[in-house]
Task: structure prediction
Amino acid sequence: MERKRIEISPGEIENQKRIIARLRAKFEKRERPLRAFVDTYGCQQNEADSEKIRGMLFEMGCVFTREEADADIVVINTCAVREHAEMRILGNVGALSHTKKANKEQMIILCGCMVQAPGMAERIKKSYPYVDLVFGPQVLWRFPELLERRLNSKKRVFEVTDEAGAIAEGLPVRRDGTVKAWLSVMYGCNNFCSYCIVPYVRMRERSRRPEVILEEARQLVKEGYKDITLLGQNVNSYGKDLPEDIDFADLIRMINDIEGDFVIRFMTSHPKDASEKLFKTMSECEKAARHIHLPFQAGNNRVLKEMNRVYTREQYLEKARLARKYMPDIVLTSDVIVGFPGETDEEFEDTVSLIEEVRFDALFTFIYSKRPGTPAAKMPDPYTRAQKQVRFDKLLDTQNRISAEKHAEYVGKTVRVLTDGRADGETTSRTGGGRLVRIKGELPVGEYMNVKITDSTTWALFGEAVAEE
Ligand code: SAH
Ligand code: SF4
Ligand code: F3S
Result:
């Protein structure tokens, strides 16, 4: 069957675990434990991958440090989505030449999306001779084997393959938080938006089996996690490649049925297949957060077509309306790109008017970044960076005003929040819709409580805890 080919066999995973045990025995002979530093760029998918890398390193007996200079093993899990991210990463890799000089034994490892981008592995090979091991996202599950190979040879190891991408179950995980957890439901992307590198580095869409997802969700709830985010580049495609008849809405309902006090979130949904069934299911599932992140990217139909987003402005507005019909209190957030090749000032105004029309709670705004190898990289791009910056600033001003107005509407209301951190006499928390609420006083973390909102800004709500009725 189709599935067998994309799922790594249990025997192969066992083999990696045997290598982990072998490395552990080797490392235990050292005077002190190996110190590892894992740095993550990019999206939640990468955060989740880094938790697996940490899981494997932990099983090898490593301890973790927050300083590159202090580390015996440095892992940089990279992102390629915009040039800015790449520049920062390469700058940091450049700085590692100093730490390596100070500690010749230091093992420098680059992995993640950037190393999979066209030409990048070659560039690293040439320009960063002190990087020991480079591997792409498709072979993450073979990290123990690749590390062992590097340790046993004098040669650097580059493992960046064109594999279609697989699913590896049963790898150890070491999660960052105790309240919030990532739960990948699918990997890859088939959408090929014309500006985006992700489908080229994360390969084709593939869904994890529902029973493994449910088992992981049950385990998270048992361990006390209160906020579970289901991850995928486009979670609404979930199940399309599975033999069983299941979609993302069904999956939400199954997770909702797990007993316990927790919230279900998800990232990200592509508007083209955010269905009425999804909104209806969310409205019927008490654990589904009243939040949907629905990137629109542009408000003009010609630009949307050039972006290959396969929906129109009108269809997007209809989706937003439907979401609100089922959940009037839904928090809507979105991503938008300014300055796509050839986007005119008039076309940009359609983006501004879409924002005014929908009134998002928050927006992630990006200036278009040319990604070699994508179709948009070949499109004429006559507008200057400065012209795009003017539009970007206008967008930000518009959204900041709307966010501030939306936040002001909370003042005087009591909201239910989950606390997630403490600092300077305050407790930070999030509403079901993901809005940041700063509560007076240092309160327990990882608990639900009611908070009366007393003040607000563009970025946050402020309030005081009130006793449960
Ligand atoms: N799969 C997600 C997006 C992942 S990338 C989705 O489709 O919703 C996150 C965001 O980065 C995108 O939504 C887009 O707004 C932005 N982005 C992607 N490629 C970009 C590029 N080349 N230049 C600028 N922004 C980009
Ligand atoms: Fe990129 Fe589009 Fe896929 Fe999102 S849906 S990851 S923007 S190609
Ligand atoms: Fe970046 Fe890869 Fe995520 S390119 S945004 S880390 S999928």
Notes: The pocket of iron/sulfur cluster (ligand 2) is lined by residues 189, 191-193, 196, 198-199, 233-234, 270 (CB under 6 Å).
